[in-house]
Amino acid sequence: MKQLESAGKRERLISNPGIHSYQHQHAAHCESGTIANLLRHQGAAVSEPLAFGIASGLSFAYLPFVRISNGLPLIAYRSPPKSIIKGTAKAFGSRFRFETFRNAEAGERRLDELLAQGTPVGAQTSVFWLPYFPEEMRFHFNAHNLVVFGKDGDDYLIGDPVAEEPQRCAVADFKRARFAKGVLAPKGLLYYPVQTARSTITPEAIRPAIRKTIRNMAAPIPLIGTRGIHTLAKRIGRLDPAHEQSSPFIGHVVRMQEEIGTGGAGFRFIYAAFLQEAAEIASLPVLGEFSERLMSIGDAWRDFALAAARMVKGRDKLDPPAIAALLHQQADSEAAFFRDLGRAAE
Predict the structure, then answer these.
(1) How far apart are CA 287 and CA 5, in angstroms?
(2) Distance (Å, whole) CA 223 – CA 209
(3) 319-322 — which CB contacts under 8 Å span 24+ positions?
(4) Element (H, E) at 340
(5) End-to-end CA distance of the chain
(6) Which residues have CB under 8 Å from 301's CB, separation 6+?
(7) 295-324 burial, b for 16+ CB within 10 Å, e for fewer?
(8) 154 forms bridges with which residues in the sheet?
(9) What are the start-end ranges of the E strands in the chain?
(10) How far is Cα of residue 101 from the mean position of the Cα atoms in its chain?
(11) How far is 305 from 327, CA to CA, in rounded Å?
(12) What are 116-125's pLDDT values in tens digits?
């Protein structure tokens, strides 16, 4: 998600000790930001990149049989929903409780109970029903994670990781966001830590996390990892420039990359930051070199998005084969990167 500005009063609600001691921190991605904020509240030393990397959040999937908006396919640049939460919690020896509900009333009562106990709570929501999002950014995406840290009158106090400031959300709006229907329906999901064993990541946890990411990206399945990027590139290369659905399809690829879940370039930058931290934690300075290399790959994802966006907006001629060629190049670059990273992390 792109950065949000506060849509109401600008003061930090969390600075009022009568409301809560929860400390909101802005993040690049909702799930890694949410789990990092929840664990920091428990005293863990965890940054967003560390959470993302230790949970092996970097991935790619092109799933044409899953339709999320206007009949367009799911294109994911990260591991499945909740995997970052669970992976980070496991690395810190933290036990989380996950609760879903059959009806909105039960879900609201449970959330209020937890807040009354002073427990910040993670929640899965639909972006479309969160009114503090600008209208142009509100779409039917049901896997947006955030922290609810208090209630003030008829408003919940929200620590949305993609917003710089805490937000307010009316009870009725938040109920709709938690119980939206469709793909990845949240079913009122709430989650919170009940026990955390460690406050830091052990050096021994770094190599297995990196190796898992490598397996994700080198998966022998044509829809996953670097092979999945090639498959998507082939699909784009077959598009007819004159067909009315070709431009929206390419625009959807860019939107999934740059707006929904941070996407291709953003996740590469987050993982590059993880490699920098991992180099110190595990005393593997070579990982710093891979961090710089991955930053360059992330820059190339941004170049791809810019070229595609110019075509979609009519500034350049729509040329699906040219866009496909850029994607094939990205797949080849990442295949080489993760092959070399695997050798370094043995």
Answers:
(1) 35
(2) 22
(3) 319/241, 320/236, 320/237, 320/238, 320/239, 320/240, 320/241, 320/246, 320/250, 321/237
(4) helix 320-344
(5) 34
(6) 257, 263, 264, 265, 268, 330
(7) bebbebbbebbebbbebbeeeeebebeebb
(8) none
(9) 58-69, 72-78, 94-99, 121-125, 144-152, 155-159, 167-170, 190-196
(10) 24
(11) 10
(12) 999 999 999 9
pLDDT of residue 214: 97
With beta carbons less than 8 A apart as the criterion, state whether 167 and 127 touch. Answer: no
CA distance 112 to 100: 14
Angstrom distance (rounded) from CA 262 to CA 270: 10
User: Between β-strands 167-170 and 155-159, what pairing exists: parallel, antiparallel or unpaired?
Assistant: antiparallel
Q: Which three-class secondary structure string do you get for 238-305?
A: CCCCCCCCHHHHHHHHHHHHHCCCCHHHHHHHHHHHHHHHHHHHCCCCHHHHHHHHHHHHHHHHHHHH
Given its phi and psi angles, is residue 161 left (phi above 0), alpha (psi -120 to 50 degrees) or beta?
A: alpha
Q: Model pTM?
A: 0.89
The answer to whether residues 13 and 166 touch, using CB atoms and an 8 Å cutoff, is: yes
Backbone phi, then psi, for 192, in 5-degree steps? -160, 150
Q: How many alpha carbons fall within 13 Å on the CB side of residue 92?
A: 31
Q: What is the spatial distance between Cα 160 and Cα 101, in angstroms, rounded to a whole number?
A: 22
Output the CA torsion 263→265→270→272 (10° steps): 150
Over residues 61-119, the pLDDT tens digits come to: 999 998 876 788 989 888 988 999 999 999 999 999 999 999 999 999 999 999 999 99
Structure tokens at 62: 């092109």
pLDDT per residue over 200-244, tens digit each? Answer: 999 999 999 999 999 999 999 999 999 999 999 999 999 999 999
Q: Write out pLDDT tens, residues 21-73.
A: 899 999 988 999 999 999 999 999 999 999 999 999 999 999 999 887 678 89
